[in-house]
């Protein structure tokens, strides 16, 4: 055990004798700060399945510019302070989920796309780097399931150069969602954010119309993974029940945006909802089911590792995050 | 986009023609399950400091055998169910904290010791592997601060072979704690768990009496890190205020064991408290301070990444975990 403070005192005294007028700069620790986060990867068993939560990163945004449509700006800002966030700022994480069923490697949702990684200075578009850090070859993914057609869920099917990120994967899309976004007749049914995002699915799927597989609610989309129609956020928005033996989890997709706002206040409308009133109905129904079932819920916009249990809390709900398991 | 299901159908048909009576086993995914957790490392900035939360792992234990001293076995078991844990089981995580102040690399608490890694099949004793995964050379650590003398905090100062794990670090111990555990006159002041653990500090510090530095509450133990006396859990138990510029965090050490039990129910006595009544007083005082200050609290036994904000909740408190930042 070296007495570091005494060693530094002596060194300081010697230095002072040589250059008495120059103040000593404090010594730097031998190890510089890492200055970056570790890869966002978290594994858990669900029956015989292995779930790997992978983060695609997170976006920061103010709430005073219409993030919550049906409350005042002041109320939204006050909520950020109540939650101990920087004033008028929320963090919206993006968390795709990888499921190894033993027979299939399945990815649910794909993030904002690797092309955003450089542009955002690594803040988002992390899925490909985190997949690689998790030891997963993107070419080994068998099935990609998309929950709905917002850019943070579908853009990641392509790399920055436009090539397919998962070239060997079957690409499964909700049939209702496909039909909605691909029909010009529906362009006038959306407004705000969705108006601006109207062309996104066509861009992403431009040459893939003949290659995607449409799936329906109530049926298995992959082994043990059954789609649940949870409309409102978008018309074809899908959640999933994942079942292996008696173990079960619910993958909510965007039944809420960040739970700190919209699970606690299920009647608040996030600006991304195509039909906010239906989204509220769906939200309450889905969380009532989760509360009754006591099933773990995985959420694309939950704080990484993006899983927890839902409790009733006053007129809303709250998320009790899972305890991080340092084993598996 | 290869149509995987069609490919498998064709392969299945071909196989069936050859061996029709043998049921097909499902194909295995090309990537086997990882079968293990990622290293538990999480970084955040606090002013100019970089904090790195490192997990040492977690222990599972039943609650029906005296974990909470002053409630019934039935009440304790019911709490595990309420929390969605396996019935009668809690997970108690161990999370040492590394602070790079820019001038010093400081470790607060050390886990159960690398010698436990193999014995526990990797469940605990992970600090050394996680430090290495974080790119930190254990020889580069300048200061090790110990909060109190329970084995899960001090045993990690040694490797499995008994040698010092941080040979170049100054080793700082609470003076009150040292005097308590090193005096035979106090042996009769403890009972239960602490009776069984009475000899632990002497074993760990056996040849280090002349090499440790005793520190006091109210003074800086390392740059920006000030000790706060939080007695009850043990007589010399210390928490810390970490301050860099205007950024501040509280490191609670063992003001509670797991917050899910003892923050929510601050009057419950964990079996590890030397003076449970004083521990309750300390707990309420410390959390009232955290609530008033709205300061982030880091807890050795919080779920990794072991940081959050404390809110009043009924007659107790609850922890609002920080949002995982995929950047830094």
Overall number of strands of chain A:
16
Largest interface: A-B, 76 and 77 residues
| The CATH C-level class name of chain A | Alpha Beta
Q: Can you identify the CATH superfamily of chain A?
A: Ribonuclease Z/Hydroxyacylglutathione hydrolase-like
Kindly report the CATH topology of chain A. Metallo-beta-lactamase, Chain A
| Structural class designation of chain A | alpha+beta
Identify the quaternary structure here.
homodimer
Going across the biggest sheet of chain A, name each strand in turn. Answer: 1-2-5-6-7-8-9
Question: Can you describe what's shown?
Answer:
Two copies of one chain form a homodimer. By secondary structure, chain A is of the alpha+beta class. Chain A has a single domain, classed as Metallo-beta-lactamase, Chain A, CATH 3.60.15. In chain A, 24% of the residues lie in helices and 25% in strands. Chain A is built from ten helices and 16 strands. The first copy, chain A, has helices at residues 4-18, 73-82, 115-119, 127-133, 151-154, 175-181, 192-196, 200-204, 259-262, 276-293; strands at residues 41-46, 49-54, 57-61, 90-94, 97-100, 105-108, 143-145, 170-174, 212-215, 220-222, 225-229, 238-244, 247-253, 296-299, 307-313, 316-321. Chain A has a seven-stranded mixed beta sheet. In chain A, strands 10-11-12-13-14-15-16 form a seven-stranded mixed beta sheet. Mean pLDDT of chain A is 92; it is low at 1-26. At the A-B interface, strand 1 of A face strand 1 of B.
């Amino acid at each position: 055990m070296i007495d570091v403070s005494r060693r530094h005192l002596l060194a300081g005294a010697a230095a002072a004798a040589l250059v008495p007028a120059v103040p000593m700069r404090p010594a730097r620790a031998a190890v510089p700060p890492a200055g970056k986060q570790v890869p966002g990867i978290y594994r858990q068993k669900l029956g015989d399945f292995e779930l790997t939560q992978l983060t695609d990163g997170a976006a920061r945004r103010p709430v005073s510019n219409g993030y919550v449509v049906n409350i005042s700006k002041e109320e939204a800002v006050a909520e950020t302070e109540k939650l101990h966030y920087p004033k008028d700022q929320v963090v919206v994480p993006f968390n795709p989920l990888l499921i190894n069923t033993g027979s299939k490697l399945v990815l649910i949702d794909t993030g904002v796309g690797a092309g955003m990684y450089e542009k955002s200075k690594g803040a988002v578009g992390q899925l490909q780097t985190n997949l690689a850090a998790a030891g997963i070859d993107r070419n080994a993914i068998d099935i990609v399931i998309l929950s709905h057609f917002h850019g943070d869920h579908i853009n990641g099917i392509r790399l920055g150069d436009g090539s397919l990120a998962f070239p060997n994967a079957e690409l499964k899309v909700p049939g209702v969602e496909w039909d909605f976004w691909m029909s010009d007749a529906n362009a006038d049914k959306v407004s705000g954010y969705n108006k601006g995002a109207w062309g996104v699915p066509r861009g992403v799927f431009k040459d893939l119309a003949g290659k995607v597989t449409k799936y329906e609610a109530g049926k298995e989309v992959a082994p043990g993974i059954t789609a649940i129609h949870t409309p409102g956020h978008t018309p074809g928005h899908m959640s999933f029940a994942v079942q292996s033996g008696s173990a079960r989890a619910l993958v909510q997709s965007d039944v809420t945006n960040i739970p700190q706002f919209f699970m606690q206040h299920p009647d608040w409308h996030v600006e991304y909802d195509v039909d906010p009133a239906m989204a509220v109905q769906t939200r309450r129904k889905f969380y009532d089911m989760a509360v009754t079932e006591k099933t773990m819920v995985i959420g694309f916009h939950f704080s990484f590792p993006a899983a927890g249990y839902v409790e009733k809390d006053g007129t809303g709900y709250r998320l009790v995050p899972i305890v991080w398991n340092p084993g598996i």
